[in-house]
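Entry 14: structure prediction run for Histidine--tRNA ligase. Input pasted below.
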Amino acid sequence: MKAKKPFRPKARRPRGFEDRSGSVLRVERHLVETASRVYDDWGFEPLQTSAFEYADALGKFLPDEERPNEGVFALEDDDGQWLSLRYDHTAPLARYVAENFQDLNKPYRRYQAGDVWRNEKPGPGRFRQFVQCDADTVGAGSPSADAEMIALAADVMRAVGLADGDYVVRVNDRRILDGVLESIGAADPERRMRVLRAADKLDRLGRDGVAQLLGEGRKDESGDYTEGAKLDAAGIDTVLGFLDAGGGSRSDVIARLEPLIGTSDTGKAGLAALAEIDAVLTAIGVDVDRALFDPSVVRGLGYYTGPVFEAELLAQASYDDGSPIQFGSVGGGGRYDDLVSRFTGQAVPATGFSFGVSRFAAALSALGLTGAVEEKPLVLVVASEKDRSADYLAMARELRAAGFRAEAFVGSGNMGKQIKYADRRGAVAAVIVGSNEREEGLVTIKDLKLGARLAADISDNKQWREEQPAQETVSRDGWVAAVSAVAQRNKP
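Run finished. Output tokens:
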């Protein structure tokens, strides 16, 4: 009888999830740290909520409501209650505020960064796990608080190295579209959400795709069908006209929107909020080139109740084949006055801004704006003698004290293999102390970057071994300074 083979799982990554390497993580960490400094400067306090929330506390606000589990990853706890991984940082914030309401200063201003999870259909650039970085003000109902969020978003764009003109924050108020829907008799909640979600896809699907979603519905390339809002032709034209009302100064947009809302008090409240936001932004120096009014911005999440905004990158970059990269929106937010009241029954106004860290970081990398992310040079201390590991680890510690990333090799392999390892790691230098160097009080330093450049011009292995280019031997007293000189001349 044949022995049964042991089960070996296939190494595979789940769809919609990604592994992020060191270089990517460093850019993302820099982005979060930069945004956090801006939030901190504006008087916000850090907060970290748990990854899991009770499913009923998160609520049903995701755009992917048609899916069986409504877009979240959920599990049943041993007490029979359902838990869900958070799909953003806003819904957990509402729970936190409600739970600690009496102890918090109002308005409560907090920022948070961390992973969120959405059980959505994955696609290019669309992941089921990603990092968001948020700032929110809870307990302030004035449009001035929304204007502050818009200005804060614009300041984050500047802080990460974008020039004015390379980004813009697009602003709207959902109540204006509500007023338009009231004017055409299409304000029932289900139809309203279908219209909002259709409008939110304008950039991705274009006018024809949105028109289909405003009407009977649309089938995508995979064959999946999305039910439409069932508006008639006149209603579709009215909503598309609303979406086209942007352009020019913020006051110009307000003037174009006024006739579309008719006598709707809801629409009038939205226009009044935009007028106040315009006044505040103008007073604090946020011009239309940094923040403009755009009726096509509606945001997909169902909990927004008033002003909404998106931060969009306008800067140009290209793929390797020369085709342009479309960055689009990297962040957004808005007012959500009903979220905390789900727990308390008490009206608690709130507004916030969030950006997707991975998407934003990838865009900054494509634009060459990650130069501010200074990665310390890596140096490898070669394990030339097996019984001298303690000495090599001590040398690595000296290098770290001098500001380097440094490791003493603890694997197996001869010197050649260790040098190849250092090359693959991107090390700037390798430090060697064999028996000869140790006895004479010397240290050999290989400039790995220079060596790689010189190797391209030398075809004779004998010549390479005899000349030992890009290598120097120095006294033990000055070896760290010599490594610093190597790093300095290889500085990008």
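Notes: The chain has two domains: 22-174+277-366, 378-489. Will compare against the previous run tomorrow.
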